[in-house]
Amino acid sequence: MPALEKTKHVGQITWLGRVPHRDAPEIVGEPLDAMMLGFDGFSGEVHAGLTRASCSRVTSQYPKDTEIRNVRQVSIVSAEELSLIADKLGLSEVDPAWLGASIVVSGIADFTHVPPSSRLQGPDGVTLTVDMLNQPCNLVAKTIEDARPGHGKAFKAAAAGRRGVTAWVERPGTLRLGDLVRLHIPAQRAWAPQPDLLDF
Fold first, then answer.
1. SS3 119
2. What is the spatial distance between Cα 180 and Cα 190, in angstroms, rounded to a whole number?
3. Residues 131-143: pLDDT tens digits?
4. What is the spatial distance between Cα 101 and Cα 95, in angstroms, rounded to a whole number?
5. Residue ranges of domains in the chain
6. CATH value of 4-44+72-187 in 2.30.40.10, 3.10.450.50, 2.40.33.20, 1.10.340.30
7. Which partner from 28, 112, 131, 191 sits 20 to 30 angstroms from 74, CA to CA?
8. What is the reported pTM?
9. What sign results for the dihedral spanned by CA atoms 136, 142, 144, 150?
10. Which residues contact 149 (CB under 8 A, 6 or more apart)?
11. What is the pLDDT of residues 79-105, one digit of tens each?
């Protein structure tokens, strides 16, 4: 039995983008028609690189700014979940550029909660490995507030559990608008440790 199972779940890429710099206090993303991905991610994007400096998300593992493997090369969000966030914010839509998103996919239900280590595979074999769900952040809230005054402050609550996932490139290739990506998931049951084994 393979360690990864090919599923019937297929998403369509409806948006591609990059964040070219971090010069401003807000996130400034820009749309793309295609994304050529190498082992270090998308060249010229602020999240690219084989390694990165550790941040507040992993302070229980490393002191801040420790060099670690970069498993946050791309940010992937769901078109359906973006619509839910927009509804919660009282907006007609949420621009993926406000989130600093790399990829928006449509058609995979409950996308933010696909299992860690799942793969999304594109037509030419390009494969992204899911790290884990992404957490809403204050930078996005500020960006939305600047773009749509009065709506950004509620972003973190509206996006909880809907912020998508971060991922890294397992096999290089190119993604294009309209491409289909298939979900592959780990062939294992959910983790269920005995309570007395959790204390160590």
1. strand
2. 27
3. 999 987 788 888 8
4. 9
5. 4-44+72-187
6. 2.40.33.20
7. 191
8. 0.91
9. positive
10. none
11. 999 999 999 999 999 999 999 899 999
> Phi and psi for 190 in degrees, rounded to 5?
-65, 150
Does residue 198 have a pLDDT over 90?
Answer: no
Between CA 101 and CA 115, with CA 51 as vertex, the angle to 5 degrees is 55
Percent helix, percent strand, percent coil in the chain, to nearest 5: 20, 35, 45
Q: How far is CA 177 from CA 15, 169, 197, in A?
A: 6, 18, 47
- Could you tell me where the DSSP H helices lie in 16-153? 79-89, 96-99, 138-147
* The two structure tokens encoding residue 96: 């993926």
Q: Is the pLDDT of residue 151 over 70?
A: yes
Count of CB atoms within 10 A of residue 187's CB? Answer: 10
Give the amino acid at 107.
Answer: G
Coil, helix or strand at residue 69? strand
19 token code pair: 């964040």
Residues 29-71 pLDDT 10s: 899 999 999 999 999 888 999 999 988 888 899 999 999 899 9
pLDDT at 73 over 70: yes
Q: Which of 180, 168, 73, 70 is nearest to 121 (CA)?
A: 180
Asked if residue 195 has pLDDT above 70, the reply is yes
